Amino acid sequence: MFESVEKAKKLLEKDEIQKAFAMFKKLAEKGNAEAQYQLAQMYVSTSKGVSKSFGDHDKEYDLWLNKAAAQGHQGAQADLARRKKSSWFSKTVTTDIEKAAAEEAERKRREAEARAAKAETDEKKAIEMYERAWSKIEEKDYRTGVSLLEQAASQNASRETAAKAAYSLYTLAIDSDYDVPISADKALYGMNRAAELNHAEAVQDLADYKEMAAKIGWSLLDVVRHTIGQSKKR
User: Fold this and answer.
1) For 105-158, how does the pLDDT look when each residue is reduced to its tens digit (9 = 90+)?
2) Interatomic CA distance for residues 184 and 168, integer angstroms
3) For residue 13, is it within any domain?
4) Is 81 in the same domain as 115?
5) Are 9 and 69 contained in the same domain?
6) Helices then strands (H, E): number in the chain?
7) How far is the C-alpha of 173 from the C-alpha of 228, rounded, in Å?
8) Counted domains in the chain
């Protein structure tokens, strides 16, 4: 089931307390500030709250309220501001906010490291896929080679590799040295995709094709199809 704060709120309105609590808790643990705030409220609510079996209410309330406040949630910050008016509580609240902010910063740091590691792994895979594609093409296993080029062109981990793979789909289609069965549609996709990724040659080629299409009144696809046909006659 797809979780969202709105779904959890609707469950709460229907008095499906445990389901709402579980959804808020899952979202809160993922760092959703609104879910953290709503979860905190459930620990202190008399009508929409949870039983003592769900933990120390005061402790959990402070934990989630501070986490939400640390992320800039206005409701949570307002609640904490009201509580700060009690001088005996001020020091505790300040410490909790700092702790929650530090925990949130650490969570974001770990997530950033995980994303960076994944990006590095994905980039290596993309490069390997591109190199394997050309290896298959040289072996005349065109079907596998083209399929790998399409996969490499569609990924976003390495824009440079994706651009080279996409442009290869176009150049192979018009290269008379290779008898690679690539359709005009696929060749045009490759040129467009490569240009989209700022491949210099693809950008220039696309501009030339558009100019030619405008002059003779053809569609861009028809110009590419004609170019492929002419190249195969050489």
Assistant:
1) 888 888 888 888 887 888 888 899 999 999 999 999 999 999 999 999 988 878
2) 13
3) yes
4) no
5) yes
6) 11, 0
7) 6
8) 2
Provide φ and ψ at 86, rounded to 5°: -85, 110
DSSP 58-80: HHHHHHHHHHHHHTT-HHHHHHH
Q: What is the pLDDT of residues 193-221, one digit of tens each?
A: 999 999 999 999 999 999 999 999 999 99
- Using a pLDDT cut of 70, give the percent of the chain over it: 86
Domain containing residue 48: 5-85
Does 98 reside within a domain?
no
In a domain, 90, yes or no: no
| Residue 67 near residue 103 (C-beta atoms within 8 A) | yes
Domain's final residue, options 85, 103, 135: 85
How much is the pLDDT for 234? Answer: 57
| Residue 103 belongs to some domain of the structure | no
Looking at the structure, do residues 175 and 217 belong to the same domain, yes or no?
yes
Residue with token string 């895979």: 125
Buried b (16+ CB within 10 A) or exposed e, 10-26: ebbeeeebeebbebbbe
What tokens does 63 get?
């934990």
Q: Which two tokens stand for residue 155?
A: 């990924």
pTM, 2 dp: 0.52
The DSSP output letter for 54 is G
Q: Are residues 123 and 166 in the same domain?
A: yes
- What is the rounded distance in angstroms from the CA atom of residue 79 to the CA atom of residue 96? 14
